[in-house]
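PROTEIN SPECIFICATION:
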Amino acid sequence: MFIDVYGDTLCAMVSAAALASTGHEVVLHVSEHGVANSLNGDSFTLREPGLADLMAEQKRAGRLSLAGLDELPGERCTVLWLALSPDGLEQAHRLLGSLPGTIDAQFLVVNQSTFPVGSTEALQQTLWNRPGTDAQHGAVVSIPDLLTEGAALSGFIRAEHWLVGADLPWAIGLVGEILRPFNRRRDAIMQMRPREAEFTKLAINGMLATRLSFMNDMANLADSLDVDIERVRQGMGADGRIGEAYLYPGCGFGGLSFSRDVMSLASTLQHSGLQAQLIEEVLQINERQKESLFRKLWQHYDNQLTGRKVAIWGAAFKPESSRIDNAPALKLITALWAQGVEVHVHDPRALPALQEWAGERDDLILHDDPYEAAAGADALMLVTEWKSYWSPDFKRLHAEMKEPLLLDGRNVWDPAFVKGSGFVYYGIGRR
């Protein structure tokens, strides 16, 4: 098939590369400064495992090409794939309204963008009501973006499940054909109405955020009860009714898509006339949790933080990402600055984004080496659980830090071992 994919998003690039790899001829439409354009210079700034190699391979094979985000699809296009950013809904309507009246009766539009619930149905009306046509040709279906940054390509190629929101039988069959190479182990396609698929995506992330915030509340309670939350977590996860996923307490969650989905769910509930009490409380708990390490530091030094040096390991909102959207580190750094603290940060990938966010400041020093960041520090805070932080040289840390104080925002270190190495240790609900 001839597929035109629109969007500067990770979802757009993954979808384009994966679809091209199965034999489709794909045109990826991106903006002039879109990340995908950096492939033309043999430098790809988005570090998503396997994606750059697959995109370059498909370009060399002639199955993947790039075009402008404002360009209409070519005459041979049979599938229009929308993977735009959440603020691209108007652009999606303009694009569908600009399609020629001569499109095939079974022209398919796939909406993979995270738009408000009901957007796919509205796009369907735009497609049918565009000027110059008197036939209801084409269908718009919803396939919500369920990809996880850091494992996006594998998540598309070996998806656990696909949510497909479609009403017309021919559209359901065509989607099944497109996804067939990624749907061989078992039938992972779950068909429903378009708005049901859109709402399911929001509900999934709402549930995951609720589990995380619940565990953070339990971890804070464990601190006051002299209970080790790790044993509690294992006991809860062993119950088949609960399971182990998303039960790890920490210093809050971030991420542009995840946070937006939860806020969108709260907004949807409010606009429907229902009170979004639970989701709003989830968001509030998460924002409070982002300052949990700061509060522990504040109490340890009896409110005397001015002039101190604090090292932070990890600024990205999650491992294997260079993004800092809504990252806990941002709120933590801001709180430290407000107390006159000099902040030293190491992160394997997110330092450029952090520099852009902060600008030039004397109280923020970025380091390429984690031990240099910790040298002479009054405390070291682990905020993002990069694997390279799990087993550091504790003897070297102890020797180079001014004060042997570790604050583990992801509970990746063993408290007994760290304390045995001469450190004062604070985790999230750990003893």
